[in-house]
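In the previous chapter we treated chains in isolation. Here, by contrast, the input contains two separate entities that must be folded as one system, with a combined length of 333 residues.
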Amino acid sequence: MKVPTRRPEEFLPLTPAMFHILLALADKERHGYHIMREVDERTSGSVKLGPGTLYGSIKRMMADGLIEELEERPDPELDDERRRYYRLTDFGFRVATAEAQRLEQMVRSARAKKLLPRAKAG
Amino acid sequence: MSNALSKDARFFVSIYTILLRAYPREFRREYGSQMVLLLLDCQRDARTAASRRRLWLRTLVDLIFTAPREHLNNIRKENKFMRNLRSDLVAIGGCVLIIALALFLLSYGRSHQVSSILLFGYVLDAIAFTGVVGNLIVFLLVKLTSLRPLRVALWTFLTVSIVPALAIVLIAGSDPKFNAPSVVIGYVVSFLFWYGLHALWSHKLRPSETT
C-alpha cells in the first residue's frame, strides 16, 4: 500500500464525487455499485455518479492512498466474484474528516451571514 | 433480483463496451470490466423504458466528460515524468562536471606542488570521493523510497564524510608524514559543499513540486 507523505489539508477541497465516495466508505467496505447506490440514496437522487466519474475518482483516490482495494470479498458466497471491494484507509478517514470540518466552517459562516437559518438546539 | 436484461438494454451495454475505447488503454484495462458490470447493475434497477433512457443519457454524458479527463491526467503524468527526468539529468550532469573539475584541479595542484600549501589536494580528494559515492546513494534513495530528498542528502553526506575521514585517520594516523587536520578539514569542506549544493537544488525545485 502506498504510504501518504502529505498532510490531509493538502487534498482539500475534495471534488464532490470524491467526498461522496469517502462518505459512502466511511462505515463499511463497498463495491462500485454499492457506492453508487449509497450516494444516490443519501442524496435522495440528486447526486448520481456515472461509471467514468466513479472509477476515475476511485483510481485517483487509490493512487493518493485515501482508499484501498480489499484482497478478499467480504461475502464471497452471495456475491459476483468479479466485483472489487474498496475501503477507506486511515489517511482517507483523516482527509474526509478534514473536508467535513472545512464544510462545517463554511456552513457556520453562511449562518453568521444569515444565508442559512440557525441550527436548532438538541 | 432477476438477471434477465431486455434486448435494448443488452444492446446499450454492447455499445457502451465499444465506447469504452474512448478511455486510455491503461484505465480501460484496470476499470473497463468494472464499469460494464456497474452499468449492468444499473440496467437491472431501471425497470421502465423511461428510466432506462435516462440512465443511457446520463452514462453517455458521463463518458463524454470523463474520457478526455483521463487522457488529460495521463498527459499531465507524462509531463511530470519528463520534468523529473530532465531535472535528474541536469543534477547528474552537474555532479559529473563538478567531480571532473575537482579531479582536474587535483591533478593540476599535485603536479604544481600547491596541494600541501593550500589544502588543495585534501579538499579536492574529499569532494571527488564523497561526490561520487554520496550522490549515487542519494540518487538511488530518492528514486526508490519516499524519503525527503534534503534529509537523505544530509544523512548520506554526513556518513560518507565522517566514515572515510575516520578510516583514513585510524589507518594512516601513525605515519609521521600524515596530516590529520588537513584530511579532517577536507572532509568538512566537502560535506558543506555537497550538502549546500543539494539544499540549493531543493530550494530551487520546491515551487514546481507543488504542481
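Residues 7-72 of chain B form one domain. The first helix of chain B runs from residue 7 to 19. Compare these points with the single-chain example from earlier in the chapter.
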